[in-house]
Amino acid sequence: MQAKETLFADLVQGRAQQFQVPLYQRTYSWTEKHLKQLWSDILEQAGLLESQEEKASTHFLGSIVLAPSPQNEATFPRWLVVDGQQRLTTLSLALAAIRDHVADTQPDEAERINEEYLINKRKSGNDHLRLLPTQADRPQFAARVRGTLTDQVVGSGVATAYAFFRKKLVEVDDPAAPQDVFRIEQAITSRLTLVAVTAEPGDNVHRIFESLNNTGLKLSQADLLRNYLFMRLRTRGEHVYETYWLPLQDSLSNDELEQLMWLQLVLDGDDRVRRQDLYAAQQKRFENPRTGEGEIEAYIRELHRRSALFRRLLHPEEEPSPPVRAALRRLDAWQAAVTYPALMLLLDRRERGELDSSETVRALAYIESFLVRRMICRVPTNNLNRIFQAVPGQLPRDVPVAEGLHQLLSSENRFWPDDAELRDKIRKAPFYQYGRWQQRKLVLQRLEESYEHPEPVDFAVAQLTIEHVMPQSPSDEWLRELGEEAAEDETAEELHALFQHTLGNLTLTAVNSELSNHPFERKQDLLNGSHLEMNRRIAATERWGVREILARADEFADRAIALWPAPLRGVGRAERSRDWQLAHQVLAALPQGTWTSYGDLAAFLGSGAQAVGNHLANTPGVAYAYRVLTSEGKVSDGFRWATPQNAESDDVRARLAADGVRFTATGAADPAQRLTADDLAALLAGTDDDDTDGENTAHNNTVAAPGEETRAERFFRQLSADDSPETVEAVRAVLAHWEGLGGWIGHGAGHVTTSAYLMLGEAGGPGRGIWPLTLYPGTGRGGTAEVVFQYLAAREPFIERTLRAEFLARLNTLDGVDIPEGKLELRPNIPLALLEKDRNRKLLTETLTWFRDRWDGRGTS
Q1: Is 460 exposed, middle or buried (0-12, 13-18, 19+ CB in 10 A)?
Q2: Which H or E run includes 78?
Q3: Rounded CA Rg of the chain
């Protein structure tokens, strides 16, 4: 191989020649981001030409790797573009745009550009083009080089790039200085340097691909495998490409195609291959000396056949059988991509005639039940990939497919909860704090459908969200009624913590903001007019408390057991040890300087405070068990060290103090350092944006239908209903300051209440960009600003803990704010009423300015 530095003009000018992008290459894929960067570099070099800084350094654009084409001729050299097609295609399109820009006013110059860089004047057909893209891009590219723009492809990268350059040329065109356009041409052809690497005829071109992939110029696994396959198809390549590959490529994105290639390996019984090892695993299969073009063509043909089945998983509306379509839609809504190996196996076996549609529906019901029961019973999801990847290779062969799948998923190590565990968890577990929000919503949707209402709600149209009947922020009236049900050793607050997030207390509604934390009588009136049967049943009760929540939970459990089939042999109550494993995990995650109570831990687990105390007292080795205190922040009278040697040497208060727990004058642990059940759930939830406030992710909606309030207006209406006019005006001032810093305000679609996000960066919700605070109206208890330390920990530059600690320290300078350092992993709240003080408002705006400066790299500390 030979390498030398060159210019675009030196590479393509001169005698007739052609640069061929092999048919196995990926299509043209430069985005506007790439184009803008290139355009900026071109203008910089054109500016140097204008200022006559001829000796200024050129701009290095990258490498071009070429190999002699099998079609090479002595009088007409042809080169395969092994790497660099994106650069060559983009520069050619830029020159075509310049040619067309000057064609009317300077036709001779346009013809010169055409002949020097774009065409082989005396050649016809494909040989007429100096650059011949891969087949998928060829029509669009040829149309722009030949000037016949009759064929338009929506979303074509080639068309987009050409249009980009035409637009930019118009923007920079100065009638007083027409030479500027030709300076841009000169910059492209003689100021952008390339390193041309040329392979010799005997070099292994595919090894070059692999080498490039290992040195930073990354090709996807699908790209590598495609390249390998078509390099092996020396005589059948064109036919196979046009017949099978192009339709396959058109029907799936590159990522989807890679996923299908991996699934094909899994369906063939490879239950250990990782997607990132797809290329190596499939290449190994084809290295058999007996593997010829026929075997490779058969593989691609099978890939093409299965692509239609795979599309039904991605787009369930393409499934012809209505019952199967409905089941696939539910799994799609569940975001159950982890089950694809099993789903593909079922659709594949059905197409082969091994089961019919009714049996397919039954098998899909087992998969749905497996997912739903595990989610309700809080079984960790970390082994789902392994479970479903093993299905094709482990499915019993001596029984029908649906029965075999039922058997396989029911085996002891699959942890498919039985009816007893499902019923128990529906009664006690904080359903609202586990799984993704769309999964929780789907469970409630299926329960509503089970009532078989004669006029069912169209869930595809209805804008429904999950509502707590007993509110998350209970008023004194709610707590007073709960207190009437409390036993001697429990409080209304503890009962609320235990039952607020359970399934029996949740429902679906389109009027969540109206329901809010109103007394039950007000909610009854609103729910009675609902089209959902579950809401009408709530409205028909006289009151709403623990008894009613448990009765509704039992009703839901009966329906859930009927909806989602049980395993053939359940894991039974013995698997409740998973609850204690969850307790151990969350206690091990307690940040320095924090504590929790027996009631908080019990509410998080869906257990009882006494059971929690007994377990901690009798289980050696539980991390931070001594940081579980009474609700008053005192060491329980019944506390004892599970390990005797600790009892001899360790004073509990001394250990707590050593861990950073502070004590009040009364000897109680500082309540500011206490982690509630919600805090404990957040500790294990991580920073997955998709799992957080999922029903509240429509943002920055400043436009409303005629007669309707915008989300911003609704936010301030709800804030005004609960906070003083001074607080509301202080919030307006803070939001105005944020917008003055270049930020923007996103408003939630409404989850009990709306919200306001102080956003920086890309629009589209808090999962994109960065935000320091989320403001919430108070719903009876005063508005709050949630400080999102937990999310900042996954976003540059606040991945650095020292920056988050400085953010916390700045917030703690506000009067009335004292966030303990232990909550740097969580989302603590600040009362908005504190902003009524001029000093606090000034300190917060200064802190927000500091935050903005840290994010965009401006300013100093």
Answers
A1: exposed
A2: strand 78-83
A3: 33
pTM (predicted TM-score): 0.67
pLDDT(213) > 60: no
- C-alpha 382/C-alpha 389 separation (Å) is 13
Amino acid identity, residue 415? F
| 574 to 374, 580, 605: CA distances (angstroms) | 15, 12, 16
- Sequence-distant (≥ 6) Cβ neighbours of residue 443 within 8 angstroms: 372, 375, 376, 431, 503, 560
pLDDT in tens, 28-68: 989 888 999 999 999 988 888 877 765 667 888 988 989 88
Read off the DSSP letter of residue 81: E
> Rounded to an integer, what distance in angstroms lies between the CA atom of residue 473 and that of residue 493?
11
3-state secondary structure (DSSP) of residue 407: helix
What average pLDDT does range 651-658 have in this prediction?
88
- CA terminus-to-terminus distance, the chain: 52
Q: Which two tokens mark 815?
A: 């009067």
Cα atoms in the 13 Å half-sphere on the side-chain side of 69: 18
Measured N-to-C along each axis, helices 546-563 and 419-428 cross at an angle, to the nearest 10 degrees, of 150
CA dihedral defined by 502, 504, 505, 511, rounded to 10 degrees?
Answer: 120
In 3D, which of 392, 376, 297 has the Cα closest to residue 339? 392
DSSP-derived 3-state class of residue 772: coil
Structure tokens at 278: 């797809």
Q: How far apart are CA 700 and CA 312, in angstroms?
A: 34
d(CA 557, CA 572): 16
For 440, the token pair is: 């929780």
State how far the alpha carbon of 709 is from the alpha carbons of 493, 703, 714, 718, 721, in Å.
35, 8, 6, 12, 15
Cα 751 to Cα 516: distance, rounded to the nearest angstrom: 9
* Residue 610 CA to its chain's centroid (Å): 39
> To 5 degrees, how large is the angle CA 67–CA 70–CA 73?
95
Q: Tokens at residue 643, please?
A: 């390990």
